[in-house]
Write a structure and sequence with these properties.
It contains seven helices and eight strands, in the order βββαβααβαβαβαβα. By secondary structure, the chain is an alpha/beta fold. It has an eight-stranded mixed β-sheet, sandwiched between helices. β5 (about 120-125), α4 (about 130-140) and β6 (about 145-150) form a beta-alpha-beta unit. It is globular and about 40 Å long.
Length: about 240
């Protein structure tokens, strides 16, 4: 489930990164926020195992916010992202303390707080580990639209229970969610006429390509920008 690809290309975390700001509490959770707080549509971006201080994730948040959304990147890891250099705490050990189902419970009050401040529609997007959190939110009818990029731990049974429009962006080279699995997701979704869906497998890219890429690699940047556009288009279609 947690393949080495899950932890490849770790970001250099920066607590001060991004054009937005960090707030101490949205629904009891510290978060990076960007965009107009009075927007009626909000996006919750859920990180991979490296957490909410990843510079590319915050850059994505800023770009999504520029489309008119209030974007929240909650610290669902409570300041405890996975550290590959810590040999005593393998990804398996770390996951026992940070199961996505626990993070789902932490995310629910964040969404409730957004609705209390006047937001009428909430979308959620997650990367890798965060995609499983998004799947749980979509199953629980907590959100109005979902996007999962190179998901981890998401099963066909999860997809069968999704209750809102969902986009799945997969990678051709992905041991965690291989194309065969993503195609199974697509079959399940296409057989459900009540739920809008969009499924795409990006050729030639590896797990993590949408949020952990080399900014000096023009092809990698182009693929990541395409994934960002697909995500933003999906939210524009289903939230506005």
């Amino acid at each position: 489930m947690a393949s080495p690809q899950c932890c490849a290309n770790p970001p250099s975390l920066n607590p001060a990164g991004g054009e937005g700001k960090v707030v101490d509490s949205i629904g009891g959770v510290k978060a990076y926020v960007a965009g107009a707080q009075d927007s009626k549509a909000a996006i919750v971006l859920i990180s991979d195992v490296f957490g909410f201080e990843a510079p590319i994730l915050r850059k994505i948040a800023d770009k999504v916010a520029s489309s008119g959304y209030f974007v929240v990147v909650p610290d669902l890891l409570h300041g405890d992202p996975y550290v590959p250099e810590d040999a005593d705490r393998t990804i398996q050990v770390w996951l026992k303390e940070h199961a996505p189902i626990k993070a789902f419970e932490v995310a629910k009050p964040v969404i409730a707080a957004l609705k209390e401040q006047g937001v009428s529609s909430v979308g959620a997007a997650g990367y890798c580990w965060g995609a499983k959190v998004v799947a749980e939110l979509a199953k629980a009818n907590e959100i109005q639209a979902a996007v999962m990029s190179h998901p981890s731990f998401v099963t066909v049974d999860d997809i069968k229970e999704v209750k809102c429009p969902i986009a799945v962006l997969g990678a051709e080279i992905d041991r965690t969610s291989p194309p065969e699995l993503v195609k199974q997701f697509e079959q399940v979704l296409s057989s459900n006429s009540e739920i809008g869906s969009f499924v795409k497998i990006f050729p030639g890219v590896s797990h993590g390509w949408a949020v952990r890429y080399d900014s000096d690699d023009a092809a990698a940047v182009k693929n990541a920008e395409e994934a960002l556009k697909d995500m933003t288009d999906w939210f524009n279609k289903n939230l506005k």
